[in-house]
């Protein structure tokens, strides 16, 4: 038996059959910014049983939900003068980037 066939299921209400669990990866990210609390609620309203976030540990040990390895992929932090001293270049996912 494969791991997929052993995955937990919920009752569908149709002749005792089980329906697969619906997992919303990053929330309703097709409608709202991914990993935003505002994106989690509609995911459940659309029928998701769970939301599966991507968690990353920051240098100071705090868990944050984010998908992209570089902040510039989803934020405008590079445009803020107060962040200029924290910019650095690094390779992520095979590409050189500065954030």
TrEMBL record:
What keywords does the record list, in alphabetical order? Glycerol metabolism, Hydrolase, Signal
Cellular component per GO, a single term: periplasmic space
Give a yes or no for keyword Hydrolase in this entry: yes
- One GO process term, biological-process aspect: glycerol metabolic process
Q: Which domain of life is it from?
A: Bacteria
- Keyword DNA-binding annotated: no
List the molecular function annotations (GO) for this entry.
glycerophosphodiester phosphodiesterase activity
Q: Which Pfam families match?
A: GDPD
User: What residues does the GP-PDE domain cover?
Assistant: 20-99
Q: Which reaction does it catalyse?
A: a sn-glycero-3-phosphodiester + H2O = an alcohol + sn-glycerol 3-phosphate + H(+)
Q: Where is this region: Disordered?
A: 66-99
Which EC numbers does the record give?
A: 3.1.4.46
The UniProt entry's sequence similarity note says: Belongs to the glycerophosphoryl diester phosphodiesterase family.
Protein's name according to its UniProt entry: glycerophosphodiester phosphodiesterase
Q: In which organism is this protein found? A: Microvirga makkahensis
